[in-house]
Prior knowledge:
The protein is of the alpha+beta class and 82 residues long. The protein has helices at 2-5, 15-27, and strands at residues 30-32, 39-41, 47-49, 59-64, 67-69, 72-75, 77-81.
Amino acid sequence: YAAQQNEQLPAVKLLPLMRPVESLLQKWGVEAIAPVGAEVSYNPQYHQLISGNAQPGEMVKVRYTGYRQGEKLLYRAKVSPV
């Protein structure tokens, strides 16, 4: 996320390496729950709080992307209250 926003960061050099991996994951039906930085409604089924408290339906900010394959949860998105 940060590398996409600021081309001065060294991590921007990794972006071309990640595109084939993203393409492969897409072919396998793996999708991100929400992008880093997104503010979403808290759902404990898909989100793990890394700090603070939140009730289902309250807004939280995604800190680490989570993934699912269809209805199967692979990794919860890590979030914190807004």
